[in-house]
Amino acid sequence: MHSELTLDPLKTALLIVDLQDEQRSEPLSMAADLDKVLANSARLLAAARASGVSVFHAAYVRDFDIRPPRPFEPLDADGGPAFSRSDSLLVAICHEVAPMDGEIVLSKNDASAFEEGSLQSRLEAKGIEWLVVAGVWTEACVAASVRDAISGGFRVLLVKDACTSGTTAMHQVGILNLANRLYGGGVADTDRAEVLLHGATATVWRSTKPVPFRFTLEDAPRLYASL
Fold first, then answer.
1. Nearest to 26 by CA among 163, 149, 169, 166
2. Partners of 108 in the beta sheet?
3. How, if at all, do strands 130-136 and 155-164 pair?
4. By the 8 A CB rule, do 106 and 54 touch?
5. What pLDDT tens digit does each residue of the chain (227 aa) get?
6. Cβ atoms within 10 A of the Cβ of 200, count?
7. Which of 40, 75, 97, 217 would bridge 190 by S-S if both were Cys, CB 3.0 to 4.6 A apart?
8. What's the CA gap between 62 and 80, in Å, rounded?
Protein backbone atom coordinates (compact mmCIF):
# COMPACT_ATOMS: atom_id res chain seq x y z
CA MET A 1 0.00 0.00 0.00
CA HIS A 2 1.01 3.64 -0.39
CA SER A 3 0.99 6.09 2.49
CA GLU A 4 2.56 9.36 3.52
CA LEU A 5 5.99 9.33 5.11
CA THR A 6 8.20 12.01 6.65
CA LEU A 7 11.82 11.39 7.64
CA ASP A 8 13.67 13.21 10.38
CA PRO A 9 17.04 14.22 8.83
CA LEU A 10 18.79 13.68 12.16
CA LYS A 11 17.50 10.10 12.34
CA THR A 12 18.10 9.25 8.69
CA ALA A 13 21.20 8.04 6.85
CA LEU A 14 21.92 7.55 3.15
CA LEU A 15 23.82 4.41 2.16
CA ILE A 16 25.24 4.14 -1.36
CA VAL A 17 26.39 0.63 -2.21
CA ASP A 18 29.20 -0.23 -4.64
CA LEU A 19 28.86 2.52 -7.24
CA GLN A 20 32.42 1.89 -8.44
CA ASP A 21 34.23 2.36 -11.73
CA GLU A 22 34.24 -1.38 -12.42
CA GLN A 23 30.47 -1.17 -12.95
CA ARG A 24 31.21 0.85 -16.10
CA SER A 25 33.68 -1.46 -17.85
CA GLU A 26 34.54 -4.69 -16.01
CA PRO A 27 32.71 -7.53 -17.86
CA LEU A 28 31.74 -9.35 -14.64
CA SER A 29 30.47 -6.16 -12.99
CA MET A 30 28.92 -4.00 -15.71
CA ALA A 31 25.51 -2.69 -14.66
CA ALA A 32 22.52 -1.72 -16.77
CA ASP A 33 21.42 1.94 -16.91
CA LEU A 34 24.39 2.97 -14.78
CA ASP A 35 24.43 6.58 -15.98
CA LYS A 36 20.81 7.02 -14.84
CA VAL A 37 21.50 5.38 -11.49
CA LEU A 38 24.58 7.54 -10.93
CA ALA A 39 22.61 10.69 -11.76
CA ASN A 40 19.80 9.69 -9.38
CA SER A 41 22.24 8.76 -6.63
CA ALA A 42 23.98 12.10 -7.06
CA ARG A 43 20.61 13.80 -6.50
CA LEU A 44 20.13 11.82 -3.31
CA LEU A 45 23.61 12.78 -2.15
CA ALA A 46 22.96 16.45 -2.80
CA ALA A 47 19.69 16.33 -0.87
CA ALA A 48 21.28 14.47 2.04
CA ARG A 49 24.19 16.90 2.24
CA ALA A 50 21.88 19.91 2.11
CA SER A 51 19.74 18.54 4.96
CA GLY A 52 22.49 17.25 7.22
CA VAL A 53 21.58 13.60 6.63
CA SER A 54 24.45 11.24 7.45
CA VAL A 55 26.07 9.69 4.36
CA PHE A 56 27.81 6.34 4.09
CA HIS A 57 29.52 4.87 1.02
CA ALA A 58 30.22 1.15 0.67
CA ALA A 59 32.77 -0.22 -1.79
CA TYR A 60 33.51 -3.85 -2.61
CA VAL A 61 37.30 -4.20 -2.36
CA ARG A 62 38.27 -7.85 -2.27
CA ASP A 63 41.50 -8.30 -0.31
CA PHE A 64 42.58 -11.84 0.57
CA ASP A 65 44.94 -10.46 3.22
CA ILE A 66 41.88 -9.27 5.14
CA ARG A 67 39.44 -12.07 4.23
CA PRO A 68 41.03 -15.24 2.80
CA PRO A 69 39.25 -16.91 -0.12
CA ARG A 70 35.92 -18.44 0.88
CA PRO A 71 34.99 -22.01 -0.12
CA PHE A 72 33.97 -22.06 -3.80
CA GLU A 73 34.75 -18.36 -4.31
CA PRO A 74 35.56 -17.67 -7.99
CA LEU A 75 39.23 -16.91 -8.57
CA ASP A 76 41.18 -15.24 -11.34
CA ALA A 77 43.75 -17.20 -13.34
CA ASP A 78 46.50 -15.99 -11.01
CA GLY A 79 44.65 -17.20 -7.92
CA GLY A 80 43.49 -13.73 -6.92
CA PRO A 81 39.92 -12.44 -6.64
CA ALA A 82 37.81 -12.73 -9.80
CA PHE A 83 36.49 -9.18 -9.39
CA SER A 84 36.77 -6.09 -7.18
CA ARG A 85 40.47 -6.73 -6.62
CA SER A 86 42.12 -4.41 -4.14
CA ASP A 87 44.98 -3.79 -6.61
CA SER A 88 42.63 -2.58 -9.35
CA LEU A 89 41.97 1.09 -10.07
CA LEU A 90 38.41 0.13 -11.00
CA VAL A 91 37.36 -0.30 -7.35
CA ALA A 92 37.39 3.49 -6.99
CA ILE A 93 34.01 5.07 -6.27
CA CYS A 94 32.54 6.76 -9.35
CA HIS A 95 33.32 10.46 -9.49
CA GLU A 96 29.62 11.35 -9.80
CA VAL A 97 29.03 10.12 -6.24
CA ALA A 98 32.50 10.58 -4.77
CA PRO A 99 32.64 10.92 -0.98
CA MET A 100 33.16 14.31 0.60
CA ASP A 101 35.20 15.00 3.71
CA GLY A 102 33.44 13.61 6.76
CA GLU A 103 31.48 10.94 4.89
CA ILE A 104 32.28 7.37 5.91
CA VAL A 105 33.62 4.93 3.29
CA LEU A 106 33.16 1.27 4.19
CA SER A 107 35.60 -1.01 2.38
CA LYS A 108 34.01 -4.46 2.44
CA ASN A 109 35.02 -7.97 1.46
CA ASP A 110 31.56 -9.43 0.95
CA ALA A 111 28.14 -8.42 -0.32
CA SER A 112 26.66 -6.58 2.64
CA ALA A 113 27.78 -3.10 3.68
CA PHE A 114 27.55 -4.42 7.24
CA GLU A 115 30.33 -6.97 6.58
CA GLU A 116 33.04 -4.38 7.25
CA GLY A 117 31.95 -4.47 10.87
CA SER A 118 31.40 -0.87 11.92
CA LEU A 119 28.20 0.21 10.16
CA GLN A 120 25.78 -1.10 12.78
CA SER A 121 27.51 0.69 15.65
CA ARG A 122 28.00 3.89 13.64
CA LEU A 123 24.30 4.04 12.82
CA GLU A 124 23.29 3.29 16.38
CA ALA A 125 25.64 5.97 17.72
CA LYS A 126 23.92 8.54 15.51
CA GLY A 127 20.45 7.40 16.55
CA ILE A 128 19.54 6.42 13.00
CA GLU A 129 16.08 4.95 12.44
CA TRP A 130 15.76 5.07 8.63
CA LEU A 131 18.39 3.99 6.12
CA VAL A 132 17.88 5.23 2.54
CA VAL A 133 19.59 2.77 0.18
CA ALA A 134 20.86 3.08 -3.40
CA GLY A 135 23.48 1.19 -5.41
CA VAL A 136 24.32 -2.03 -7.23
CA TRP A 137 23.65 -4.93 -7.81
CA THR A 138 20.06 -4.96 -6.64
CA GLU A 139 19.73 -8.68 -5.91
CA ALA A 140 23.27 -9.03 -4.56
CA CYS A 141 25.07 -6.36 -2.54
CA VAL A 142 22.04 -4.07 -2.23
CA ALA A 143 19.84 -6.97 -1.11
CA ALA A 144 22.40 -8.23 1.40
CA SER A 145 22.79 -4.74 2.86
CA VAL A 146 19.02 -4.23 3.09
CA ARG A 147 18.47 -7.56 4.84
CA ASP A 148 21.24 -6.89 7.35
CA ALA A 149 19.85 -3.42 8.00
CA ILE A 150 16.41 -4.86 8.77
CA SER A 151 17.97 -7.52 11.01
CA GLY A 152 19.86 -4.74 12.77
CA GLY A 153 16.64 -2.92 13.61
CA PHE A 154 16.66 -0.18 10.96
CA ARG A 155 13.82 0.79 8.65
CA VAL A 156 14.88 0.81 5.01
CA LEU A 157 13.71 3.09 2.23
CA LEU A 158 14.81 1.41 -0.99
CA VAL A 159 15.20 3.88 -3.88
CA LYS A 160 14.28 1.74 -6.84
CA ASP A 161 15.58 3.92 -9.70
CA ALA A 162 18.84 4.63 -7.87
CA CYS A 163 19.64 0.91 -7.94
CA THR A 164 20.40 -1.42 -10.82
CA SER A 165 21.75 -4.83 -11.73
CA GLY A 166 23.18 -6.69 -14.70
CA THR A 167 19.92 -6.29 -16.64
CA THR A 168 16.65 -4.44 -16.20
CA ALA A 169 14.84 -7.72 -15.57
CA MET A 170 17.29 -8.75 -12.85
CA HIS A 171 16.86 -5.36 -11.20
CA GLN A 172 13.06 -5.32 -11.28
CA VAL A 173 12.78 -8.83 -9.90
CA GLY A 174 15.35 -7.96 -7.24
CA ILE A 175 13.30 -4.96 -6.09
CA LEU A 176 10.09 -7.00 -5.96
CA ASN A 177 11.80 -9.77 -4.00
CA LEU A 178 13.08 -7.22 -1.49
CA ALA A 179 9.67 -5.55 -1.26
CA ASN A 180 8.20 -8.93 -0.33
CA ARG A 181 10.32 -8.96 2.84
CA LEU A 182 10.88 -5.25 3.47
CA TYR A 183 9.43 -5.34 6.98
CA GLY A 184 9.09 -1.87 8.50
CA GLY A 185 10.32 -0.15 5.35
CA GLY A 186 9.26 1.13 1.97
CA VAL A 187 10.11 1.72 -1.67
CA ALA A 188 10.26 5.05 -3.52
CA ASP A 189 11.71 6.56 -6.66
CA THR A 190 14.32 9.30 -6.62
CA ASP A 191 11.78 12.11 -6.92
CA ARG A 192 10.01 11.04 -3.73
CA ALA A 193 13.17 10.06 -1.88
CA GLU A 194 14.67 13.47 -2.62
CA VAL A 195 11.63 15.13 -1.05
CA LEU A 196 11.96 12.91 2.01
CA LEU A 197 15.68 13.65 2.41
CA HIS A 198 14.82 17.33 2.51
CA GLY A 199 12.57 16.62 5.51
CA ALA A 200 9.26 17.04 3.65
CA THR A 201 6.43 14.53 3.25
CA ALA A 202 5.98 12.17 0.29
CA THR A 203 3.72 9.25 -0.51
CA VAL A 204 5.66 5.98 -0.81
CA TRP A 205 4.94 2.28 -1.02
CA ARG A 206 5.07 0.78 2.48
CA SER A 207 5.45 -2.85 3.51
CA THR A 208 2.40 -3.98 5.48
CA LYS A 209 2.47 -7.78 5.15
CA PRO A 210 4.75 -10.59 3.98
CA VAL A 211 4.82 -11.43 0.27
CA PRO A 212 2.48 -8.81 -1.16
CA PHE A 213 3.75 -9.58 -4.68
CA ARG A 214 3.31 -13.13 -6.02
CA PHE A 215 4.57 -11.93 -9.36
CA THR A 216 5.20 -13.67 -12.67
CA LEU A 217 7.64 -12.81 -15.41
CA GLU A 218 4.73 -11.29 -17.30
CA ASP A 219 3.45 -8.92 -14.61
CA ALA A 220 6.74 -8.08 -12.86
CA PRO A 221 7.34 -4.86 -14.88
CA ARG A 222 3.84 -3.58 -14.09
CA LEU A 223 4.16 -4.34 -10.38
CA TYR A 224 7.62 -2.75 -10.27
CA ALA A 225 6.19 0.41 -11.84
CA SER A 226 3.45 0.48 -9.20
CA LEU A 227 5.92 0.81 -6.31
1. 166
2. 60
3. parallel
4. no
5. 899 999 999 999 999 999 999 999 889 899 999 999 999 999 999 999 999 999 999 999 999 999 999 999 999 999 999 999 999 999 999 999 999 999 999 999 999 999 999 999 999 999 999 999 999 999 999 999 999 999 999 999 999 999 999 999 999 999 999 999 999 999 999 999 999 999 999 999 999 999 999 999 999 999 999 99
6. 12
7. 40
8. 9
